[in-house]
Amino acid sequence: MTTPIRHATATAQPNIALVKYWGKRDDALNLPAAGSLSITLDALHTRTHVRFDDTLTADDIALNGRHDATQSRKLGAFLDLFRARAGITTRAHIESGNDFPTGAGLASSASGFAALAIAVDHALGLNLDQRELSILARRGSGSAARSIFGGFVEMAAGTRDDGEDAFATPLLEAAAWPLEVVIAITAREKKTVSSRAGMDRTRQTSPYYRDWIAAVPADLAAARAAVRSRDFESLARTGEASCLAMHAVMLSARPGLIYWNAATVGCIQCIRELQRGGTGVFFTIDAGPQVKAVCLPDHAARVVEALRGVAGVEDVLPSGLGAGARVVEADA
Ligand code: DP6
């Protein structure tokens, strides 16, 4: 079957989990072992252009201007999910770029797969709804299921073996509670253990893995209630607890996973000091050394200033909360 050559460009932003996802119940379908809750950012972007081309014999994929065989295989398999839905085998040119460091704990896979899902859906004219797009984005990366939506988002673990109930839903739009996030960049290198490999090692080897997973629903309920009532103190308590519990279970893997550096700890101490002085701020950290300080809008300038002063902090990026993944250009 031949397809008309179709193009689309989509953009998506990373999200930061406040209740963390770290562990899978199924590797093949990439099903999370527990739910998670996140905020989508507005200052960092992935932009992805897709063009299906009947003359291609293989997908042609460039990420930040580079062709990488491993990434291309992974993205090709992701594209196959959409090709199967469309009943085609046509290969595609893909160009995707981030305006922030890739693979350093800034959730580039979240915005990457969300943007790709939206662009491919549009280019192939599939018109999938957001639930289906979230399910498909999850196949690329668990956190990508959340970047389909803006503002505050909850991801369901689901219980079905086919994963059709493991998708994200929006909880509260960004404008309804416009928190700020200040990202302290403490290293620019790509991390040495990917989230996927780290989660697998944790599940296989940590004696605390089951307890970690069992504790997530209570944190989710507390964070969901805090978001609904705009209770910053409560969200701060739950957010820090979930982050530290995730890093505790990472540390307890064998060999232990240490994603932090000295400046990461410096930022945590700085944020604790700000809290003692009455600043509305809390920290969260993913599978990398960057620290994300979530703060009340009026307190963001103070947090930027303080984090800039921490030894080893290379840059500080302030961000508001933003929108979900969307098409920005299409020429069918
Ligand atoms: C620490 O979504 O990158 O950022 O599903 O294997 O692609 P895969 O993992 P990924 O993991 C994110 C882990 C985290 C926590 C979170 O975002 O919830």
In total, how many domains does the architecture comprise?
2
CATH topology of the largest domain: Ribosomal Protein S5, domain 2
How large, in whole angstroms, is the Cα Rg?
Answer: 19 Å
Oligomerization status of the protein chains? single chain
Q: Largest sheet, described in full?
A: 5 strands, mixed
Share of residues in strands: 15-25%
Order of helices and strands: EEEEEEEHEHHHEEEHHHHEEHEE
The secondary structure category is alpha+beta
Number of strands: 15
CATH class of the largest domain: Alpha Beta
The overall pLDDT average reads 94
Short description:
The chain is of the alpha+beta class and 332 residues long. The chain has helices at residues 69-86, 108-123, 130-140, 144-147, 195-205, 209-228, 232-251, 262-276, 300-308; strands at 7-12, 15-19, 24-26, 31-32, 36-40, 46-53, 60-63, 91-98, 152-155, 168-172, 180-185, 281-284, 291-295, 315-319, 326-331.
Explain what you see:
The chain has 332 residues and is α+β, with helices and mostly antiparallel strands. It folds into 2 domains: 7-173, Ribosomal Protein S5, domain 2 (2-Layer Sandwich), CATH 3.30.230; 180-319, 2-Layer Sandwich (Alpha-Beta Plaits). It has 9 helices and 15 strands. It has helices at 69-86, 108-123, 130-140, 144-147, 195-205, 209-228, 232-251, 262-276, 300-308, and strands at residues 7-12, 15-19, 24-26, 31-32, 36-40, 46-53, 60-63, 91-98, 152-155, 168-172, 180-185, 281-284, 291-295, 315-319, 326-331. The strands form 4 sheets. Strands 7-8-6-1-15 form a 5-stranded mixed β-sheet. Strands 2-5-9-10 form a 4-stranded antiparallel β-sheet. Helix 2 packs across helix 3 (130-140) and helix 6 (209-228) runs antiparallel to helix 7. It is globular. The model has no long low-confidence stretch (mean pLDDT 94). The protein binds ligand DP6. Ligand DP6 binds at residues 17, 20-22, 30, 36, 109, 141-143, 195-196, 199, 286-287. Residues 17, 20-22, 30, 36, 109, 141-143, 195-196, 199, 286-287 line the site of ligand DP6.
